[in-house]
Amino acid sequence: MKVIFLDFDGVLNSNAYLMRSGGQGVTIDPARMVLLKQIVDATGAKIVLSSSWRLHWSAVPEECNFTGRQIEEIFAAHEMKIWDKTPTVGRRREGQIKQFLDDHPEIENFVVLDDMLLYADYLEGHMVKTAAYFEGLDAADVGKAIEILTRHES
After folding, report:
1. CA separation for the pair 21, 31 (Å, rounded)
2. 77 vs 146: CA distance, rounded Å
3. Could you tell me the residue ranges of all domains in the chain?
4. Residue 107 in contact with residue 101, Cβ under 8 Å?
5. Rounded to the nearest 10 degrees, what angle do helices 139-150 and 30-43 cross at?
6. Helices (H) and strands (E) in the chain, counts
7. Distance (Å, whole) CA 13 – CA 1
8. What pLDDT shows up at residue 154?
């Protein structure tokens, strides 16, 4: 199984998009969702929320709050589904991703899409750092993520 650990702010949105959208509600740029779908379609990877936005979402729809339901609807509108989210352990995203990987030995490969550079040995070669609030996820990031997720396929 392949997994995309997904941050939202600086990946699925940008300053430019926030200004255009007025910053109200769930601010996910539809153009960034199209790019994310390219990665999912090319690799078959499952999406795991590593963003702090994960606190709004649950795999059990009744446990999602209003924002979590909006997130689910946006992903469904782009024909994608969120598989899971990282646990709330410690304060650092690296530790949360590590815990998730430890809890899911069926994961064969993964990529982390984030606007912050995360530091941990096990993340080396698995990080795609976006241009943060300048643009968010872009075509070059898509290519890097696909390469990471498919590099060991025969």
Report:
1. 13
2. 22
3. 2-150
4. yes
5. 20
6. 5, 5
7. 27
8. 46
- Per-residue pLDDT 10s for the chain (154 aa) are 999 999 988 899 877 776 676 656 567 888 899 999 999 999 999 999 998 889 888 889 899 998 899 999 999 999 999 999 999 877 788 999 999 999 999 999 999 999 987 788 889 999 999 986 667 899 999 999 999 999 866 4
Report the alpha-carbon distance of residue 68 to residue 54 in Å, rounded. 8
* DSSP character at residue 20: H
Of 40, 3, 35, 4, which Cα lies nearest the Cα of 17?
A: 35
Phi, psi of 113 (to 5 degrees): -100, 110
pLDDT at 128: 95
pTM value > 0.85:
yes
As assigned by CATH, the class of the 2-150 domain is: alpha beta
Distance CA 78, CA 62 (A): 21
The answer to whether residues 76 and 34 touch, using CB atoms and an 8 Å cutoff, is no
Place of tokens 């007025």: 22
Measured CA to CA, the distance from residue 46 to residue 1 in angstroms comes to 8
Look up residue 10 and give its two tokens: 């600086």
Give me Rg for the CA atoms of the chain: 15
